Amino acid sequence: MNPVLMPQASELRRRLATGARRVVVKVGSNVLAAAGLGLDAGVMAGLVGEISRLVDAGRELVLVTSGAILAGRVILGLHERPKLLPEKQACAAVGQPELIGRYRELFGWYGKIVSQVLLTAEDLRDRKRYLNARNTLRVLLDRKVVPIVNENDTVSVEEIKFGDNDMLSSLVASLVEADLLVILSDVEGFFTADPRADSAARLIEHVEEIGADELARAGHAPGRHGLGGMASKLEAAARLMKSGIPAIVAPGKRAGTLNAVLAGESVGTLFYSASSGRLSRRKHWLAYAAHPKGSLTLDAGACRALLEQGKSLLPSGVRSVEGKFDLGDPVACLDDEGKEIARGLVNYSSEEIGRIRGRHSSAIEKILGRKDYDEVIHRDNLALR
After folding, report:
1. Which residue ranges in the chain fall short of pLDDT 70?
2. Antiparallel, parallel or unpaired: β 247-251 and 180-185
3. Which CATH homologous superfamily contains domain 9-282?
4. In this predicted model, what pLDDT tens digit does every residue of 279-337 receive, in sequence order?
5. Is 313 helix (H, G, I), strand (E, B) or coil?
6. The CATH number of 292-384 is which of 3.40.50.720, 2.30.130.10, 1.20.1640.10, 1.10.1740.10?
7. How many angstroms separate the CA atoms of 325 and 286, rounded?
8. Whose CA is closest to 99, among 171, 48, 167?
9. Least packed by Cβ within 10 Å: which of 18, 38, 194, 288?
10. Rounded distance, CA 178 to CA 173, Å?
11. What pLDDT was estimated at residue 296?
């Protein structure tokens, strides 16, 4: 199918891809799945060979991989993907050693050392654990080790799950300050319509903005073997676009795709906007990894001040407080329709904000008996969503 070309898209892609030294590669279950049951040995061998040659050429690669449940199903003799959480966790517990063992053997053919990094969302929500994970990955890359990252499905429950490895890969890309995220999928990329239902659908080479129309075209249907779908890939890409990190969704079953992508060839869809700015790594963590302990509903003036004027949140703009939290905790900032517009670290507890909400900053000391800050949330500790 002929791709939809954007002006100068090919040159932009070439510059971003060939200049990317640190790359996160995500491969999903639908790419790793064999035609029958289990892992596709040919796809895995091809991917490992490409990654190894790229490392030899001076790149740093982090692999975010699915496949533990897929591998575990074979060992446990399950022909259908389990639906209940304990069954999924059992498959992951059995399958993860098999998955990492295969990667270790394949990378060993190329003289590469691999590491296993299993994460839960809770690991990245906590700032100290987030920094520990970042430091560990940095040392591994410095020592020319290929980190292999997966969600720790054995212990993850719905409250602490990333959702799928598309979300995990976007957080890892920010965590390691990657130059590029490559999502290897079972589709060619992002199309003008669903190519399975519309023969006139065309591949879009470059997406500069992800809005309601793009999300509607993506749909919500996951693949046969995994949790994700194009919608989750768009959400992951949208998060990274705010950090200035490009993402490319490309066909993972096709041999040589990763090499072609990093050579700057027109494969798949590039998600990148040069005008989107760049969230700092800390603010990306705050916006997408930190778990809110509560929420503040803001009036229209405060919403405008945050979204349009880049200002801090003052107590006068807070209409109501939900949840129980302390100084320094992350909270969600909501508009009057309940939509989250920002996330930030508060300077006062929920009880204190409840007492000073709607009041001018000059009244804080009289109400609380002290005034540590004029702001409920300082702009430096605030990330827009």
Report:
1. 1-9, 153-163, 218-228, 275-278
2. parallel
3. Acetylglutamate kinase-like (3.40.1160.10)
4. 777 888 888 878 899 999 999 999 999 999 989 999 999 999 999 999 999 999 999 99
5. strand
6. 2.30.130.10
7. 16
8. 48
9. 18
10. 5
11. 96
Q: What are the residues whose beta carbons fall under 8 Å from the beta carbon of 72, sequence distance 6 or more?
A: 78, 90, 91, 92, 93, 94, 95, 96, 98
Tokens (6 digits) for 141: 């890359």
Give the span between the Cα atoms of 245 and 263, in whole angstroms. 17
Q: Token digits for 229?
A: 């779908």
Residue range 346-358, pLDDT digits in tens? 999 999 999 999 9
Q: Return d(Cα 48, Cα 146) in angstroms, integer.
A: 10
% helix, strand, coil for the chain, step of 5: 40, 20, 40
CB 140 within 8 A of CB 115: yes
Eight-state DSSP code of residue 150: E
The residue length of the chain stands at 385
pLDDT digits (tens, 9 = 90+) for 34-74: 887 889 999 999 999 999 999 999 999 999 999 998 999 99
**Buried-exposed string 84-104: b where 16+ CB fall within 10 A, e elsewhere:** eeebbbbbbbbbbebbbebbb
Between the alpha carbon of residue 104 and those of residues 51, 119, 147, 322, 346, the distances in Å are 13, 19, 11, 48, 44
The per-residue pLDDT for 194 is 75
What does the pLDDT read at residue 278? Answer: 67
Report domain extents, the chain. 9-282, 292-384
